[in-house]
Design a protein that fits this description.
Elements: E1 8-13, E2 21-22, E3 29-31, E4 44-48, E5 62-65, E6 75-78, E7 85-89, E8 100-105, E9 121-126, H1 132-136, E10 138-144, E11 147-153, E12 158-163, E13 166-175, E14 178-183, E15 186-196, E16 199-203, E17 209-213
Parallel strand pairs: 3-9
Antiparallel strand pairs: 1-2, 1-4, 4-7, 5-8, 6-7, 8-9, 10-11, 10-17, 11-12, 12-13, 13-14, 14-15, 15-16, 16-17
C-alpha cells in the first residue's frame, strides 16, 4: 500500500503544532506528550489524514483513564468545520492535580471510507500542581450573582473588595480546595475551581458561584 494511502494519526496539544506518525506496529503505540505537565482543563486534539466516521467517535473508542484504570468523564467529538480532527475535552471539573492519566485512541476509530488504524495509540500525561495561594495573589475582577467588584488578595491573607468606590477590608483562608473570603459584609466559603491562571471560581454548598478573572 502506498504510504500516502495509509491512515495516520497525531495526538497534540490544542495549542501545539500537528505531528504525524504512521501506525505500523502490532501493539498500541505509546507516545510521549509534546507538553507535560498540562493544565487540569486540558483539551487534546487527535488529527487524522482522512475524514473521520463520526459514528466511531465514542467514549469507548477514545477515552482517558487514571492511574487505577478508572475511565474519566471526557467527551470526544469531531471538530466543527474540520472532519479530520477529533477533540477530547477534559472532565467537567478538570483532572486532578499532580495525577497521571493515559489517553487511549483505539483501532476502532475509522475514516468515512472504512479505513482504520492498524493499532491503537496511548499517551501518558500528568496534570500540573498549582499552588493556589500563589496563584490568586493580586487583583481580580469579581462577579457574584450579577454584582461586579474588584478583589485584591495579599500574601498575608488580607483582602480588599472594592464595590461602588467603597473598600471592604477582610481576610481570606485556603484549606485544601476550600476558600473562605469576606464579601458583601459576610464570610463566604466554597470549593475552588482553577479554570486557568487567569480565571477561577468559588462555588458554595448551595451552588452559588463567585467568578474571578484577571
Amino acid at each position: 500500500m502506498r504510504l500516502t494511502r495509509k491512515l495516520f494519526v497525531s495526538i497534540i496539544s490544542i495549542i501545539m503544532l500537528t505531528m504525524t506518525l504512521p501506525i505500523i506496529s502490532s501493539a498500541a503505540i505509546l507516545w510521549p506528550p509534546k507538553e507535560n505537565p498540562v493544565p487540569s482543563n486540558k483539551e487534546w486534539k487527535v488529527t487524522f489524514s482522512l475524514p473521520i466516521d463520526e459514528e466511531t467517535v465514542t467514549s469507548k473508542n477514545v477515552y482517558v483513564v487514571d492511574e487505577r484504570g478508572n475511565i474519566q468523564a471526557t467527551a470526544p467529538s469531531v471538530a466543527l468545520g474540520n472532519s479530520t480532527e477529533l477533540l477530547l475535552s477534559a472532565p467537567l471539573n478538570g483532572y486532578e492535580e499532580g495525577k497521571t492519566y493515559t489517553l487511549h485512541v483505539t483501532d476502532r476509530i475509522k475514516s468515512r471510507n472504512g479505513k482504520g488504524l492498524t493499532d491503537g495509540v496511548e499517551m501518558d500525561f500528568t496534570i500540573e500542581s498549582i499552588n493556589i495561594q500563589d496563584m490568586i495573589l493580586g487583583t481580580w475582577k469579581g462577579d457574584y450573582i450579577g454584582i461586579n467588584f474588584l478583589a485584591i488578595f495579599n500574601k498575608n491573607y488580607t483582602s480588599q473588595v472594592i464595590l461602588d468606590g467603597q473598600t471592604e477590608e477582610g481576610v481570606y483562608s485556603i484549606s485544601g480546595d476550600q476558600m473562605t473570603m469576606r464579601l458583601l459584609e459576610n464570610q463566604r466559603t466554597g470549593r475552588i475551581n482553577i479554570i486557568s491562571n487567569n480565571e477561577f471560581t468559588i462555588t458554595s454548598a448551595s451552588g452559588k458561584v463567585i467568578r474571578f478573572k484577571r
